[in-house]
Amino acid sequence: MKVYQIFVDRFSTNNVQKDAKLAFKTSKTWMGGNLNGIISKLEYIKNLGFDAIWLTPIFSASDYHGYSTMDFYSIDRHFGSNEIFKKLVNKAHSIGLKVILDFVANHVSYKHPFFVSALNNKKSSYRKWFVFDSKNDYMSFLGFKGLPKLNTRNEEVVNYLIEAGLFWINNFGIDGYRLDHAIGPSLEFWRDFTSACKKVDKDFSFLPEIWLSGIDPKYLDTLWFLEDETKKNALLKIVSENTGKTWDEFQSTDAEEFAMDIFKGLFNTPLDFSSNLSIRRMKFDLLEKRRKNGFIFADNHDMQRISWLIPGKTDLVVKELGKAENSIVYYGTEIGLSQKRDFTKLKSFSDTECRRFMVWGKGNTSKIRKFKYNFLGN
Q: What pLDDT does residue 375 have?
């Protein structure tokens, strides 16, 4: 399956003039990309040779990126509505495109009403939905307090998340979930979640993010796939020996390989970070060893763009992606969308550099055609 990843807020506003003004700009907050904008570009994506689209989180959230969920059952007002999303799915399916949503099961926004209730009232019915200590401090996503960790060892939380996951399958007919920070929730939760989804649709797809390099060892307790101290200590040794400021500086993917051995049998189509690092170093010969069913990719919304790292070589990268059975291309790669600055030069919000607004216009026509030619392997 060939997947086109769309960062929803940075793709298209469905207004030619607005898109032109926003082209290549970025922001720490919402810029205006929405579902209607995506609908208007579905034919464009299909004509490039893709089989599916992956949308970054579209549920109601407190931040533009969507990874701070406020409500699992509604589309964020900045992006549209449930009705518009239904229209998007129907249009995508009518032209042969599958729709994959980003599902965040590990954490929610600190503004989520369930968390606000739990934080302010120790007797709240939602208190056990999160993990508090005796000082009322709480476990969060890698120490970031804006994203409190959900207690996926709690039956009520498990049932709630499963019901939310099934809601979008049963009512909208989506085709898969990209599972954010899949190393955070418990393995037992993922077994229950994936099993429930597969019961509804046996062909339902999962693209789990199993990314460990760069995680501060002091946050290993928040990674619940490590079900015993032996596994935790083994990973601690690997992580401690593989340090760097950005993903591109890491020397190995040993941590990712370690995790995949644990997840083996649960997910057979992971996002392949091992191949990703090989691609970013132009070591294409190593791709022959890639996992049989994993999804290879060159970059995403958390990484420096491939066109920034190896300018002028994007076509070669895309050609390699086209050879894979399963691959993902981040929006804009087909036209060489890049950055203005290096991640390491920024102290905060560095990821906004790889989330610049898509550039639309006739000036990109030749590049788009060249991309299509390479991607299809012709």
A: 44
**Tokens standing for 151?**
């207690």
Q: Which residue has the tokens 């890639």?
A: 290
| Cα 246 to Cα 91: distance, rounded to the nearest angstrom | 38
C-alpha span between 181 and 103 (Å, rounded): 9
Could you tell me the domains of the chain? 2-103+176-375 (3.20.20.80)
pLDDT at site 251: 83
Catalytic residue among 76, 180, 256, 320: 180
The pLDDT tens digits for 44-74 are: 999 999 999 999 999 999 999 999 999 999 9
Rg (CA), the chain: 20
3 φ/ψ angles, rounded to the nearest 5 degrees: -115, 135
CB 98 within 8 A of CB 92: yes
44 CB-near residues (< 8 Å, 6+ apart): none
How far is the C-alpha of 179 from the C-alpha of 183, rounded, in Å? Answer: 9
CB 358 within 8 A of CB 8: no
Q: How far apart are CA 174 and CA 97, in angstroms?
A: 11
Contacts of 83 (CB under 8 A, 6+ apart): none
Residue from 319, 368, 349 nearest 146 by CA = 349
Count Cβ atoms within 10 A of the Cβ of residue 319 and give its class: 0-12 exposed, 13-18 middle, 19 or more buried: middle
Does the active-site annotation cover 209? yes
Q: For residues 65-97, b (16+ Cβ closer than 10 Å) or e, as one string?
A: bbbbbbebeebbebbbeeeebeebbebbeeeeb
Could you give the CA distance from residue 22 to residue 18 in angstroms, rounded to a whole number? 6
Q: How far apart are alpha carbons 326 and 75 in whole angstroms?
A: 28
> Which amino acid would we find at residue 346?
L
Q: For residue 292, what pLDDT band results from cuts at 50, 70 and 90?
A: low
The active-site residue out of 192, 209, 248, 351 is: 209
**pLDDT tens digits, one per residue of 111-122:** 999 999 999 999
Q: 299: exposed, middle or buried (C-beta count within 10 Å: 0-12, 13-18, 19+)?
A: buried
